[in-house]
Amino acid sequence: MTERMQNAADAGPGPHYLALRDHLAGEIAQGALAVGARLPSERQLQLGSGAARGTVREALFQLEAEGLIYRRDRSGWYVSPPPVVYDPTRWAGFMAYVAEQGRVPTTETLGKQSVAASAADAAVFGCAIGTPLFALDRRRAIDGRPVLVERILVDPVIAPDLLDEGLDGSLTAVLTGRYGVRVVRNHVEMRPCALIKDVARALGVASGTPGLLVVRRSFDAGDRIIEYDHEYWRHDAIRVLVEVRTRD
Amino acid sequence: MTERMQNAADAGPGPHYLALRDHLAGEIAQGALAVGARLPSERQLQLGSGAARGTVREALFQLEAEGLIYRRDRSGWYVSPPPVVYDPTRWAGFMAYVAEQGRVPTTETLGKQSVAASAADAAVFGCAIGTPLFALDRRRAIDGRPVLVERILVDPVIAPDLLDEGLDGSLTAVLTGRYGVRVVRNHVEMRPCALIKDVARALGVASGTPGLLVVRRSFDAGDRIIEYDHEYWRHDAIRVLVEVRTRD
DNA sequence: GAGTGGTCTAGACCACCTT
DNA sequence: AGGTGGTCTAGACCACTCA
C-alpha cells in the first residue's frame, strides 16, 4: 500500500535528488546495501551522480525521513535495522518486549538526581512547584544502537530510596517488587518531534533528526501517579501498534 | 519537560540556523507570530539575519520538524495550529472526534474505484491476488487545512453497492447502518514517515515533508476484515493518546 | 592525520501561487 | 507579472571520528 500510494507516477524525471533517492532505495530493497551497511560517503556519491553535495544530502535526508537510513554523527550513513513493535496496551517494559522480538536490549543510566518540580511537573504530580522529585535519565539501545533516551520522574514519597537501587533494568519491576506499588492504569501520548540538543547528543544523532516523543504516566489504584516518563525515540526504531476490542 | 530536556544548555553560540530557529520559536511562543500567521519570506528573513538563504531554510526545516510551522507549497511558511488528539481506543470516527475538540472537520472524496488486490492486500483480506476490492481515496481537513489523505479498502462482498453511497461522512456509519456490519476489533499501527509524491501533492505539501502513517484494520465478530485503511497525516496535526487499564 | 559529516556562502534558474 | 518556495551549483572551513 505504501508503495502503491506513494510510488505511483514514478515515470516523470522529477528532481535529481529524488532520482538519487530512488537509486539508493532500490539498492537497499535489493540487498545490495544490507541492513547496518554503511553507504558510500557523500563525496563519493557526488562523483557517482554528478550532483552537488547539497543535492546528494537532500537525497540522504529524504531516505532518513522515510526511516530507511540513519546517520552516526560525523561517521557516516547506515542502513536502518527493522523497527521494534511497541504496544502500549501490552506494556511489559522495554527489556521484555525487545527481547521477545529477538533483539538485544540494553539500558544505561546517564544520571539520577533529585530535581525541583517545574510548573508542568507539579500539575501532573498534584504537588507544589519546587517539590523535590527523583529524576532518572537513561539511554536504551537495541543490538548496540542507541534508540531512545528518557527521563523518568518519580515521587520520593512512593520510593524513598529509589536512587540507591540498580536502575539499569525495569524500573516498574523495582517499584513493584521493592515498594509494593501496583500500576493499574497507563496513559500514553505520542507525537513526532525533532531530536535536538541534549537528546540529540545523547543519541549520537545530528540535531534536528526526526524522532518520536512518547510520554507515559502510570497510576495506581488510588490514581496516584507512579511514573512520569518522557521517551525520545529515533523515529525509525519504533512502530506503534494498538489492538482494541470495541466495547459493547 | 520537553523544554527542560531539549532546551537545556542554550548558552553556547551553536550554529546560526539554530539561533534563528530560537528567535522564530520565541516569536511564536510570545504570540508575535499568531497561529495561522504567515512568516516573513525566506528572502526577508535572509536580510534580517544576514545569513545565506540555505541557512535560513535550515532553521525553517528545523521548526517544521518540531511541528511549530508548516508550509504551503510555493506560497509560504505558516504557524501551525494545535494538533487534534487521536485516541485509537475510543475510535469514534474523524468527523466526530475532531468536532468534539471544537474544530471543523471536512471530508472530500478524491476517487472511488474497484482495484485488484496486491499481494499485501490479499494477505490482509485472505483472498487471492487480483481479487477486486473497493478503494476509496479521501482527503480530510481541519478548519480548512488538509491534514490527511487516506485510502480505504473494503471487500465488495461485505458492501456490494458501497461506491454508490455518499462517502463524505463516516464510512463506518455507512457500513453499520446500511450493511449491518458490526466492528468488534480495531488494529491500529502508526509510524513516522515522509510524505512523498501523490500524497504530498494531495496535501499540498513539499515532497519529503515529515508525516505519520496510521494503518487501521477493523474486524467483525467473525474476524472478517471490514475496513483496511491507510491514513497519511501531516505530522504536526495529530497527537496520539492511548489510555490503558492494566489487566489483573 | 585523513576522511567524514556539519555548517555556511553567494549566487542561479525554475515552477508555481498570488494578485 | 511579481513574488514565493523548490532545486541546484561549486565552492569553503570546521568539528569530529576513526584508524
Per CATH, the superfamily of the largest domain in chain A is: Chorismate lyase-like
Structural class per helix/strand content of chain A? alpha+beta
The second-level CATH architecture of the largest domain in chain A is 3-Layer(aba) Sandwich
Largest interface: A-B, 58 and 58 residues
**Helical residue percent band of chain A:** 25-40%
Q: How are the strands ordered across the major sheet of chain A?
A: 4-5-6-9-8-7
Largest sheet descriptor of chain A: 6 strands, antiparallel
Mean pLDDT of chain A: 89
Dominant shape of chain A: elongated
SSE order of chain A, one letter for each helix or strand: HHHHEEEHEHEEHEHEEE
Under CATH, the topology of the largest domain in chain A can be stated as Chorismate lyase
Based on CA atoms alone, the radius of gyration of chain A comes out at 21 Å
Assess the beta-strand content of chain A as a share of residues. 35-45%
Domain HTH gntR-type (chains A, B): 14-82
Protein name (chains A, B): UTRA domain-containing protein
Keywords (chains A, B): DNA-binding, Transcription, Transcription regulation
Organism (chains A, B): Sphingomonas echinoides
